[in-house]
Amino acid sequence: MPSIASSKRRFRSPATPIPTTTTSPPTRKSPRRCISATPNSVSSVVVRQIITDENQIESIQPASLKSKWNPKDGEQMRIVKEVLHLSTAPSTMVCREEEQNVVLGFCKGCVEHEKAGSLYICGCPGTGKSLSMEKVKVNLLNWAAEGGFPLPDVLSVNCTSLSNTSDIFTKILGLHKTLGKKGSGTPLQQLQNLYSHKSPTLNMILIVADELDYLITKDRAVLHDLFMLTTFPFSRCILIGVANAIDLADRFLPRLTALNCKPTVVTFRAYTKDQILKIIQERLNELPYIVFQHQALELCARKVAAASGDMRNALCICRSAIEMLEAEIRDSACNLNALEEKSSSEQNLPTAPDYVKKQELDMVRIDHMALALSKTYRSPVVDTIQSLPHHQQIILCSSMKRFRGAKKDSILGELYKSYAEICKSSLIPPAGIMEFSNMCRVLNDQGLIKLGQSRDDKLRRVTPKLDEGDITFALQVIFHSLEPLYHLIFILP
Q: Do both 167 and 228 map to the same domain?
């Protein structure tokens, strides 16, 4: 009878190869690769499975995946905070390509035909207006150089820095180097005289006036005269005004409308959840390691988009969440070490949860983000939910899971079944149906759910009165320490 060893040798023989669909022979990797897998691994990565001699499944992962982040490393922490700082311009600007193309196309047309014109850029704070104009200036100069056009002079002015609103005309006049001796009159009068006569030596000039609403005076003369410079017959001004007010041109420049000289308006709308998430990820892609849980970034993007769509707030909240992780590591290092020693000494406990907890210390979790958000956005509803007794919070979570999708209401008996399932799955003793009914009445009195009328309590209709996002935001921090309950409510569909 052949031995087991000889059977294994015959199995490894090249005469009976294992069929594979790959064009090149598979590369052997260490089984330790499985340890580096996380729930946030990129879904598009192709993983090939190979049956080894020991009948184990081994996964092969490209070496280009990011390494773990060490938040205890001061240099790494500094780099992460710098990437997320407001003053750090991203290498690529996403989600504003359409608006930039409109402005750049307008400027190209003015330079190409040597024709003056004006634009008004408006939108809520933190929607990328100023940063987009910086990109437009660079792209315009590159285009002019490549196309053989004379390079336009560029003047960027933040109107809040002007000690006097009329100083903007002095700055514009200073760019015209072809002026010989100093002219007579005010800077505005000199510019008006200059643009009234043909002068082939004058360059086109791009003026970007940020915070334009600071030029609004009582008689609105400065703002009006600034835009009127683009209407003179030999003007070389390309004026781009940037401000938050959408109707500034209609309210403060009515004479321009009457003269058919109203500036073209380009509106920057508030960022959506997907856009905020994409912009943050674009910044973090510059780092060689993973810093945030994907769910944490999603929570931040969803909350900021619902509140204001201000990208600056999103970046500040992300930095605040990093500081929450720093504080946790600094304050509880001794407790974590004691917990690890206790877990390793108990042989009957599974090792996977311990490993997950250790991994989560290496990145910003969803509870860190929720704490950072709570410092920025506080609401009475969130405070009320967080102050509820534990079982009433579970009832709200049960209703949230039950009412996901198109379902708008349920009966109390069905809601009790969902509540009891969550409690049992989390090893929490559920309340009886009578106590459950009384807790639902309390939630109804607080305006958190709506109870219908019925002789039988179990048949009373239950309708949600809270937004799912408020429940999620309020309870993620509280339930994160209860691993089974957190996973059941916030992770599973």
A: yes
